Predict the structure.
Amino acid sequence: MVSEEPTTPRQPLPVTAAEYLSEKVYPTLEPALEAMLQAAFPADAHVPEGEEEKGVLDAPLVWLAKYLKDRNTENSAKRDRDTWQTALELAGSEADSYQSAYDHGVAAARSVLWPCSVIIAIKDTVTEQVPATPREPEPKPEGEEEEPAAAEEGEEGEEKKPEMKDVSVPVLRYVATSHPDKRSIEGWVLRYEEQGRTGSVVASAETLVVERAAHREQNLHFFCGRAKGVTADDAACYCAVPLKEQDGSVYGVLAMDTLLDGRMIGEQDVERLQQLAAAVDRAREPFAAADREKRRLEEEAAEAARLEEEEKKRLEEEAAAAEAAAEEGFRSVRRHPIVVVTW
């Protein structure tokens, strides 16, 4: 027969979760959290002015709640949506100039795609001097020996400088950057028909995405040094999106690269950059429309002046022709006088 030992009666479970937390969880968590906070924020650590009221002085459980809330997947997704919506609104916000619209677009792209570098470049032309095409020598009659050409000399026996001519070179002029110092792009132009690969965006109006952008064989226009900690097989991305006029023609590019951290970009990043570019287009449209109207009026005025000059010239020619005809008639009468015969 098995003897039954007296059993200790089990304590009833707390009625509520709050009681359980108070009796079992908090006493265990609080010392651990305090130790963790003391390690992370030593008592002798310097606290910057104005930071005293931030998380380091929160009660441990309050600190933990904030920490978990910030890293909660749902909250992170909401924060991402909010950041994106704010960026989209900034890029499309009312601007007071072209430059303002471009600056808003760059700031919006940086806020939602950080860490990255962002620029906006606009189509322009620069005038350069190049040697004029030398005139072809006239051919000599067959059998006649051609004398060697003497070197042309200028003053004091110096060799004559070649004739030069002005040519217009299409470029992309950098007008906005995410760099804190806006002067960092001052004077920057890209001869996109000769340098790099961004010219394909201007020519095709299609988005360009270049993976492993830090590698020289990618033939990008800017100096690319491999980002810190980036392996040879994963060396950042470059993406350029066309900026378009109302009629679909390309007037510039919105471009970004991830050389700061070397990460690859995904389809969502590209789509967002495209949407931000469209927002920039809308923000600058009032100024573009005003410029188009100004050009239209100037062209109409020039055409009216041209027609007026042509009409004036036509009337002068008609008057001259009439005067010449009258003079010719007078001379004809003098050569052949009219004889009046009476009976």
